[in-house]
């Protein structure tokens, strides 16, 4: 069956999507919003995204990859935003395996080896 | 004693399958068997010096099927979850004390085992993952596979699917640690749990019998009782063998006065299941160590904490000629952690006559690797290592116990200074005013040098760490006396 991708924006949409696929392996990449030309305000996210996408085929069958935009820079910097409070995110980009403590943060996302390890680890 | 052989350099010979006299290049510079405190510290250190390192870590599931991730005993089923659960129990006590300090809450406070266990396991999971990332980033090869020697310079790694691979290395480090011992009585493996199972138990253990008088037994009994469970400790003879017995008895008395039952002088001879469940109900039949008296008791959970056995008997040591102590399973090493086989080293709990503590394994592992690959000369100092027992009344110690000091120096040559103290924080909530205790043991013949430090009271670990450094520097009683105290803290005593 392979894997599928869902693109969401904002915390409520993320949670809703994650809950819909409960029971399947869920991986999520959190990035800053993109402007009209498709560029993110977060330079590290720009670097990380292609690295992560190149490794997606390593996810186990039936996986769901959620690509989640967290909002504009101001919203992200607000210490009370729901991503920080509820998901305990500390930085973007963050790549995580939902429901586990396994995650990669910032420069860790640039390393194909680590991304692959996150997708294939059991 | 162990003879030190100089390693054959520069030719490394592989004598297998009839190959002879050909200089050989190995798969790895160093293979570490065991991914715990000692093994990981050594592996990461070796990677710093650009060595090609592999770590083999594998957890043989407990009799009840429990297993865990990379990091060894300390991280998964030892120090870390223990201290967190001890803290959970302390917080329970703090909640009780808080009313006397003016906090007002009307409901009685209850405890959820599941919430605590889940938080603890989550934290441990993040540590397991952290080690995976650290090893990968440092380019240390890690395999979740059971390593055993099959011939000179060669190990076989078997993963959980049974797939076998062979690897060779110039040097090996054995860091396989220990696992809890069972009683070898009917029902022990089927119905009892050990510390390997306790910290991830998916249900509240309920009324618990702890068998054993080790620090593991007393620490677990302590926090289980602190969480509100009914706890009984069954002790064969003395408490905390190897520790200062004066203090061990004070710890036992304190626990007893605070609701933990002790059954002294008995050992279980049979465990029966009365009722299945999570938890179920178990009947324990025990016999006196002094006579023929038999007693019975019913508990939800039986936790065995009677000792730990080294994982050295099934890793093929005989195939490479590494000598172990047949009786204890421990590996004798010289003061450079080298076994009788020159290219095979060992660190951690499996070492004979060395302290079984995480920081000791880490230090020994790091210094060993520095000596092997970075021209280091420092050897691990196993003397005056501080330690703390996290019983309800914490106990920190460094150096000689009173009885070993007497044995070594003679009673007339040592002076013991001691005092009880009442932590200021305990006064308002009217907690015990005569239980906390501190003593130092001094060597009269050596300028009254402090050779033993013992403190029984809150935050004992934090207090002891500083004193350990002072003892290492050779502090004398006079120097201690002339150090002005911080007020108001327990440590000023």
TrEMBL record, chain A:
Q: Cytoplasm as a keyword?
A: yes
Classify the source by domain of life.
Answer: Eukaryota
Q: Where is the Thioredoxin domain?
A: 8-121
InterPro entries assigned: Thioredoxin-like_sf, TXNDC17-like, TXNDC17_dom
Q: What is its main location?
A: cytoplasm
Q: Where in the cell is it found?
A: Cytoplasm
Asked if the keyword Cytoplasm belongs to this entry, the reply reads yes
Q: Which GO terms describe its molecular function?
A: protein-disulfide reductase [NAD(P)H] activity
Instruction: Write out the entry's keywords from A to Z.
Output: Cytoplasm, Disulfide bond, Redox-active center
Its Gene Ontology cellular component terms are:
cytosol
Q: Which family does it belong to?
A: Belongs to the thioredoxin family.
PANTHER family annotated for this entry? Answer: 42-9-9 PROTEIN-RELATED, THIOREDOXIN DOMAIN-CONTAINING PROTEIN 17
Q: What is this protein called?
A: Thioredoxin domain-containing protein 17
Q: Which organism is it from?
A: Heliornis fulica (sungrebe)
Gene this chain is encoded by: Txd17
TrEMBL record, chain B:
Q: Which residues form the FAD/NAD(P)-binding domain?
A: 28-365
Cellular component (GO) terms are: cytosol; mitochondrion
A GO molecular-function descriptor: flavin adenine dinucleotide binding
Positions that bind FAD = 83, 147, 349
Q: What class of enzyme is it?
A: oxidoreductase
Cofactor(s) annotated in UniProt: FAD
Q: Where is the signal peptide?
A: none
* Region ranges (Disordered): 1-20
- Report any one BP term from Gene Ontology: cellular response to oxidative stress
> NADP: is it a keyword of this entry?
yes
Q: Where is the Pyridine nucleotide-disulphide oxidoreductase dimerisation domain?
A: 385-492
User: Which Pfam family, any one of them, does this sequence belong to?
Assistant: Pyr_redox_2
Q: Which cysteine pairs are joined by S-S bonds?
A: 74-79
Q: Which UniProt keywords apply?
A: Disulfide bond, FAD, Flavoprotein, NAD, NADP, Nucleotide-binding, Oxidoreductase, Redox-active center, Selenocysteine
How and how many cofactors are bound, per the record note? Binds 1 FAD per subunit.
Q: Does the keyword NADP apply?
A: yes
Reported function: Reduces disulfideprotein thioredoxin (Trx) to its dithiol-containing form. Homodimeric flavoprotein involved in the regulation of cellular redox reactions, growth and differentiation. Contains a selenocysteine residue at the C-terminal active site that is essential for catalysis. Also has reductase activity on hydrogen peroxide (H2O2).
Task: Write out the similarity annotation.
Answer: Belongs to the class-I pyridine nucleotide-disulfide oxidoreductase family.
Q: What is this protein called?
A: Thioredoxin reductase 1, cytoplasmic
Q: What is the lineage of its organism?
A: Eukaryota, Metazoa, Chordata, Craniata, Vertebrata
């Amino acid at each position: 069956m392979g894997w599928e991708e869902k693109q969401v924006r904002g915390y409520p949409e993320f949670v809703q999507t994650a809950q819909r696929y409960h029971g399947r392996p869920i991986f999520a990449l959190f990035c800053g919003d993109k402007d009209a030309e498709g560029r993110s305000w977060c330079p590290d996210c720009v670097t990380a995204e292609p690295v992560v996408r190149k490794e997606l085929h390593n996810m186990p069958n039936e996986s769901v990859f959620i690509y989640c935009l967290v909002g504009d820079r101001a919203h992200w910097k607000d210490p009370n935003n729901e991503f920080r409070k509820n998901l305990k995110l500390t930085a973007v980009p963050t790549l995580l395996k939902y429901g586990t403590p396994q995650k990669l943060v910032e420069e860790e996302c640039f390393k194909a080896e680590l991304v692959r390890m996150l997708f294939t680890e059991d | 004693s162990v003879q030190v052989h100089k390693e054959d350099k520069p030719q490394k010979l592989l004598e297998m399958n009839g190959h002879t006299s050909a200089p050989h290049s190995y798969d790895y510079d160093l293979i570490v068997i065991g991914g715990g405190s000692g093994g990981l510290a050594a592996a990461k250190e070796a990677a710093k010096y650009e060595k090609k390192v592999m770590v083999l870590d594998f957890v043989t599931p407990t009799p009840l099927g429990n297993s865990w991730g990379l990091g060894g005993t300390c991280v998964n089923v030892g120090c870390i979850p223990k201290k967190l659960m001890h803290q959970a129990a302390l917080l329970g006590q703090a909640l009780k004390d808080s009313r006397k300090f003016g906090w007002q809450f009307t409901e009685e406070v209850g405890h959820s085992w599941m919430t605590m266990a889940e938080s603890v396991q989550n934290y441990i999971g993040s540590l397991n993952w952290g080690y995976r990332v650290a090893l990968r980033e440092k380019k240390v090869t890690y395999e979740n596979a059971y390593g055993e020697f099959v011939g000179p310079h060669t190990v076989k790694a078997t993963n959980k699917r049974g797939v076998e691979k062979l690897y060779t290395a110039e040097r090996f480090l054995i860091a396989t640690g220990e696992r809890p011992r069972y009683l070898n009585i009917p029902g022990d493996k089927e119905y009892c749990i050990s510390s390997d199972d306790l910290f991830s138990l998916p249900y509240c253990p309920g009324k618990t019998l702890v068998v054993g008088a080790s620090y593991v037994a007393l620490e677990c009994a302590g926090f289980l009782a602190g969480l509100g469970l009914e706890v009984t400790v069954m002790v064969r003879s003395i408490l905390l063998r190897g520790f200062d017995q004066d203090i061990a008895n004070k710890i036992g008395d304190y626990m007893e006065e605070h609701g933990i039952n002790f059954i002294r002088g008995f050992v279980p001879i049979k465990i029966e299941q009365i009722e299945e469940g999570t938890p179920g109900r178990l009947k324990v039949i025990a016999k006196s160590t002094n006579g023929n008296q038999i007693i019975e008791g019913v508990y939800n959970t039986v936790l065995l904490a009677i000792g730990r056995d080294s994982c050295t008997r099934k890793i093929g040591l005989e195939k490479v000629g590494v000598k172990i102590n047949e009786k204890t399973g421990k590996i004798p090493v010289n003061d450079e952690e080298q076994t009788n086989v020159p290219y095979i080293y060992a660190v951690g709990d499996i070492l004979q006559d060395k302290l079984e503590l995480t920081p000791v394994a880490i230090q020994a592992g790091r210094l060993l690797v520095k000596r092997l690959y970075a021209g280091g000369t420092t050897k691990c100092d196993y003397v005056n290592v501080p330690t703390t027992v996290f019983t309800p009344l914490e106990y920190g110690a460094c150096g000689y116990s009173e009885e070993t000091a007497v044995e070594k120096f003679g009673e007339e040559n040592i002076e013991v200074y001691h005092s009880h103290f009442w932590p200021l924080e305990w006064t308002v909530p009217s907690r015990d005013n005569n239980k906390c205790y501190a003593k130092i043991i001094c060597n009269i013949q050596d300028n009254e040098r402090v050779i033993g430090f013992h403190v029984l009271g809150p935050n004992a670990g934090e207090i002891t760490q500083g004193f350990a450094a002072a003892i290492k520097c050779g502090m004398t009683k006079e120097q201690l006396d002339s150090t002005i105290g911080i007020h108001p803290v327990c440590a000023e005593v």
